[in-house]
Write a structure and sequence with these properties.
The complex is a heterodimer of chains A (559) and B (85). Chain A is an alpha/beta fold. Among the domains of chain A are: 31-100, no CATH class; 460-557, no CATH class. Chain A has helices at residues 2-24, 34-51, 55-67, 76-79, 87-96, 102-132, 135-146, 149-154, 161-180, 184-200, 206-221, 229-246, 249-253, 255-269, 299-307, 310-336, 349-370, 385-404, 408-432, 446-449, 461-467, 495-500, and strands at residues 282-285, 288-291, 476-480, 501-504, 514-517, 538-546, 549-557. In chain A, α2 crosses α5. By secondary structure, chain B is mainly α. Chain B has one domain (2-84). Helices cover 89% and strands 0% of the residues of chain B. Chain B contains 3 helices and no strands. Chain B has helices spanning 2-38, 40-59, 66-84. The radius of gyration of chain B is 28 Å and the shape is elongated. Classes of the chains: A alpha/beta (559), B mainly alpha (85). At the A-B interface, α16 of A face α1 and α2 of B.
């Protein structure tokens, strides 16, 4: 009975998540990266269709690819370096479902992102259960992750970072399984998913590197572990094999391309231009404009602090503190106490899993902070750190639970506090809907929130288009007074509106009827705001403010 | 051996962090200033300032005082005579 009841809780939580996702996914705006990811999908679908000689699919993909090009984005030959694990299935689904209206196929993509994320949440549950062996603690972890606002908001439109998080979670799950049982099945699955994570974001390279690091730590303590080298080599053979077979960009130039991609990725990572060397030159952070390759050391720390809800943050710091304490004790013990266990930093597999998450988080965080990493768009490119943050928070909960598990009164009191914060978290998500991707902590003042960039992906542009009066009846000129390619999403309008709208750029914007700004600039407007100054013949027509932050502003010409 | 490795890694990371938050921070601030001064926006701002100053000069009745005007006149004549040579 108890087992069934517990399983019911698992099903209920996941059913709740799924229903929530299915209900809200059509509400989200459109991310400016979606257009090129769609093009990337058709580019590779066309390539695959040609490779396997499926003429019908080749012709359809070619037509779709032609329709997805835009003068606002780089040619697809330049953008095609991303993996295909989301883009090609999305392109294929669009063809199979015969979706012709842009609004339909973009919403289908939003649903698909959410389904991938949902899959990631299932594996996150399995991963937590694998480590903590407690259904309730694992479920709390899943809920905390799902309710992390910036992840929640992105799980309906971010076709890159969310997909990466999903495959990172699945990879770590199979890494944990291989720690339990270092057999060929788990190694192959770990190799498979870590290769998919790598093709989605080059940062996935951290998975094979972490395997080497932990192998090194093992043989430092126990020379006998050197025998594992055969399986490590086996992992790498399969890792490169899977990388090669599912990433068609490698088919042409083979492993030369891998080294170029990794080199370029790392180059971009440290602020040099690589194959992925694009993005804005400036980022608005903490009330000032900074060059994206010269961001302050406090960048990630502040972004994590100000965009993570107090519940997740509090539990994370508890877990982090315990981890640091364990590390300190282990380091002290090395010299003074005769060792009771074989390895220096863990005494069993569970501790090894905790140490893995903790040390990888610390290494990535220090690398991001101190290695002059090129960053922009808040910290979305490293949102995968949320996986580590929530794991460490759950570790904190587990440690607290171990201390109080015999005291039912305290358990009940703490559960009530947790429930209160979760309800508050849900209320805040509701308040931000559908702009949870731009969430700021409840602890910030109104003034402080103005010191950061908000709608960097232009999610609000569709709301702007919908707010233009009489667009069905007459011709209207619009322009964007920000660093945003507003042309990209004119296609979302219906045929009449599309024909009636004219987008003006640069100096011609003065002649527009309505101006849109999401307040994202690629200049230091504190020095000179000439390029983004609202012309004098315009007045504010509408502004969308959520939780004291301005999402976008709309201006109307008065003469 | 392994204790030596742990200590070395710990010290190296610590030194790197200390170096970053001291010298690295100064370097970042210098870079920021240099970037600002060499940026397109700054050049544009300077151009605007010069235009504004020229306009001011045109609008003012006496932009240069008599003494300076005399000095500049003599200086220009001197230059002219030397160039003619």
């Amino acid at each position: 009975m108890t087992v069934f009841k517990r399983n019911v809780y698992v099903y209920l939580v996941f059913l709740g998540i799924l229903i929530t996702g299915l209900l809200v996914y059509p509400d989200y705006g459109f991310n400016m990266d979606e257009k090129f990811h769609r093009a990337n999908g058709f580019y590779w679908l066309k390539y695959l269709a040609e490779f396997f000689q499926i003429n019908y699919l080749y012709e359809l993909s070619d037509l779709k690819l032609l329709s997805s090009s835009s003068f606002t984005q780089e040619p697809i030959d330049y953008l095609n370096k991303y993996g295909i694990v989301f883009d090609v299935p999305a392109a294929l689904t669009e063809i199979v479902l015969k979706l012709e209206e842009p609004i339909q196929y973009y919403q289908m993509r939003h649903l698909m992102v959410f389904i991938y994320f949902f899959l990631g949440l299932i594996f996150f549950y399995k991963l937590l259960y694998n480590r903590f062996r407690n259904i309730y603690i694992s479920l709390i972890g899943v809920i905390l992750f799902f309710l992390t606002p910036r992840i929640f908001g992105d799980s309906f439109q971010n076709t890159k970072d969310i997909i990466f998080i999903t495959f990172l979670i699945i990879s770590v799950y199979y890494y944990f399984k291989s720690l339990d049982n270092f057999d060929y099945k788990n190694i192959i699955l770990f190799a498979l998913f870590s290769s998919v994570a790598t093709s989605t974001r080059i940062m996935g390279i951290l998975l094979p590197l972490s395997l080497i690091l932990f192998y090194f730590l093992e043989i430092l303590c126990n020379k006998k572990d050197i025998i594992k080298y055969k399986k490590i080599i086996f992992y790498f053979i399969f890792y490169f094999f899977f990388l090669y077979i599912h990433w068609p960009v490698l088919w042409e130039n083979g492993f030369k391309e891998i080294t170029a991609l990794i080199g370029g990725g790392i180059g971009n990572f440290v602020g040099k231009t690589g194959p992925f060397g694009f993005g804005p030159e400036f980022v608005y952070f903490n009330g000032d404009f900074h060059s994206t390759d010269n961001i302050p050391y406090s960048y990630f720390f502040i972004w994590i602090l100000i965009t993570t809800p107090i519940l997740q943050l509090g539990l994370f710091f508890i877990g982090l503190g315990i981890n640091f304490n364990n590390l300190y004790i282990n380091l002290i013990k090395i010299d003074k106490i005769k060792k009771k266990h074989t390895y220096d930093f863990w005494s069993n597999v569970s501790e090894k899993k905790d140490f893995y998450i903790f040390i990888i988080f610390i290494i990535i965080f220090l690398a991001l902070t101190f290695l002059d990493v090129k960053q922009y768009n808040s910290w979305r490119m490293v949102y995968f750190l949320n996986f580590f943050i929530i794991y460490i928070a759950v570790f904190g909960i587990n440690e607290i639970y171990k201390k109080i598990k015999n005291n039912l009164k305290i358990i009940k009191s703490l559960s009530l506090i947790l429930l209160f914060f979760l309800i508050f978290n849900i209320y805040r998500l509701h308040l931000y809907h559908p702009y949870q991707a731009f969430y700021f902590s409840e602890l910030l003042t109104k003034e402080y929130k103005q010191k950061f960039e908000v709608d960097y992906t232009g999610l609000s542009s569709i709301d702007f288009f919908r707010s233009i009066p009489n667009l069905e009846e007459k011709k209207i000129k619009v322009g964007a007074i920000s660093w945003y390619p507003i042309w990209r999403y004119v296609e979302l309008l219906n045929e009449t509106k599309k024909n009636n709208i004219q987008v003006l750029f640069d100096v011609k914007r003065k002649e527009a009827d309505y101006l849109y700004t999401n307040r994202i600039y690629n200049d230091n407007i504190k020095i000179n705001d000439k390029r983004y100054r609202i012309p004098e013949n315009f007045i504010k027509f509408k502004e969308l403010i959520v939780d004291d932050i301005i999402i976008y502003e709309m201006y109307k010409k008065i003469k | 051996m392994r204790i030596f490795i742990y200590k070395s890694v710990f010290v190296a990371v610590l030194v790197f962090i200390i170096f970053s938050i001291t010298f690295g921070q100064v370097k970042k601030e210098i870079n920021k200033k240099v970037n600002e001064l060499t940026s397109g926006e700054y050049v544009e701002k300077m151009k605007d300032e010069i235009r504004k100053e020229i306009k001011n000069a045109i609008e003012k009745e006496d932009y240069i005082n008599d003494e300076d005007a005399e000095l500049i006149r003599k200086f220009l004549l001197k230059i002219q005579s030397e160039i003619n040579l």
